[in-house]
């Protein structure tokens, strides 16, 4: 059973390094750093580190450790919330002696010596709490760890609004709020935005297009981002902006970066993750990401999404 194998591997190793995907969201950090707290609280003598690039908007949740390459030599590496190796933040994960994958995305890229993939879970953070429960009281969680895991669940369920939310999700959330962390401060950190982001949200609502097949598109070019003084990385909080608009089956954000056009894709029904895989991406059936190298390729992506939504009968 993967859960038992994972707990055994953690017990057997003195140095454990935790990774997650690039461009982290609340679930990536919640699962990665929540697991660190769980391990460190249970086994304070172990050396536990979290690595990867940082998103300034999420450093209120956790900050990464700066460690040397040689720390990986005899380390257990655990990768959270990352479907494929190409999206693992910090390629040094390959230097570890053993790799574990914990994830709730479709297992399109099976990697690691131990894999625990549960696509029925609302989030990888939910899986980390389940791992704690599987430890049957031997494993411990701090107040800070509970905050991280709860934040990850909240983030990946859209505050419990997404279809992935189930009765287990609510049970786990009810358990976690028994810990006395400040939920209001957590929500403020996750959802409050700067004025410039709010103004860009207004631009999105005024400029999105909607086709007959139910596809909505917004283009955030370099010029638009410069106009609002917003970095591409900061657009993550805006992807849900069109989710409440009637008539939209799926919506797509094209965010222009220096050397690539980042694609953020969401759906209210049509399954989009296979389409995202076609364009160097992947994700969930209703929430995915990808990247294209030119606006011509972006047009082809849009055509494919149009065909997908036109064929959808839900």
Automatic annotation (TrEMBL):
<protein>
    <submittedName>
        <fullName>Bifunctional oligoribonuclease/PAP phosphatase NrnA</fullName>
    </submittedName>
</protein>
<dbReference type="Pfam" id="PF01368">
    <property type="entry name" value="DHH"/>
</dbReference>
<dbReference type="InterPro" id="IPR038763">
    <property type="entry name" value="DHH_sf"/>
</dbReference>
<dbReference type="InterPro" id="IPR003156">
    <property type="entry name" value="DHHA1_dom"/>
</dbReference>
<dbReference type="Pfam" id="PF02272">
    <property type="entry name" value="DHHA1"/>
</dbReference>
<feature type="domain" description="DHHA1">
    <location>
        <begin position="227"/>
        <end position="310"/>
    </location>
</feature>
<feature type="domain" description="DDH">
    <location>
        <begin position="16"/>
        <end position="153"/>
    </location>
</feature>
<dbReference type="GO" id="GO:0003676">
    <property type="term" value="F:nucleic acid binding"/>
</dbReference>
<dbReference type="InterPro" id="IPR001667">
    <property type="entry name" value="DDH_dom"/>
</dbReference>
<dbReference type="InterPro" id="IPR051319">
    <property type="entry name" value="Oligoribo/pAp-PDE_c-di-AMP_PDE"/>
</dbReference>
């Amino acid at each position: 059973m993967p859960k038992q194998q994972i707990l055994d591997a953690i017990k057997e190793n003195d140095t454990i390094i935790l990774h997650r995907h690039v461009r982290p969201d609340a679930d990536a950090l919640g699962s990665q750093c929540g697991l660190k707290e769980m391990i460190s609280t249970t086994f304070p003598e172990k050396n536990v580190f979290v690595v990867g690039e940082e998103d300034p908007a999420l450093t209120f949740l956790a900050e990464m450790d700066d460690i040397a390459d040689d720390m990986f030599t005899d380390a257990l590496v655990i990768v959270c919330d990352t479907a494929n190796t190409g999206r693992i933040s910090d390629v040094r994960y390959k230097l570890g002696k053993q790799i574990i994958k914990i994830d709730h995305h479709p297992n399109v890229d099976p990697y690691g010596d131990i894999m625990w993939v549960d696509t029925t879970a609302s989030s990888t953070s939910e899986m980390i709490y389940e791992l704690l429960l599987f430890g049957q009281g031997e494993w411990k969680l701090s107040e800070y760890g509970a905050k991280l895991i709860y934040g990850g669940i909240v983030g990946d369920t859209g505050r419990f609004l997404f279809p992935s939310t189930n009765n287990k999700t609510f049970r786990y959330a009810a358990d976690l709020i028994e810990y006395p962390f400040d939920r209001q401060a957590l929500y403020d950190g996750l959802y409050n935005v700067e004025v410039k982001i709010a103004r860009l949200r207004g631009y999105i609502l005024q400029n999105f297009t909607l086709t007959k097949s139910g596809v909505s598109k917004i283009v955030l070019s370099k010029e638009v981002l410069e106009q609002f003084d917003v970095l591409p990385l900061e657009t993550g909080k805006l992807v849900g902006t069109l989710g409440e608009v009637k008539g939209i089956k799926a919506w797509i954000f094209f965010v222009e970066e220096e050397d690539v056009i980042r694609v953020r894709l969401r759906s209210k029904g049509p399954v989009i993750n296979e389409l995202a895989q076609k364009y160097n991406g992947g994700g969930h059936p209703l929430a995915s990401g990808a990247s294209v190298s030119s606006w011509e390729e972006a047009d082809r992506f849009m055509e494919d999404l149009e065909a997908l939504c036109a064929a959808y009968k839900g």
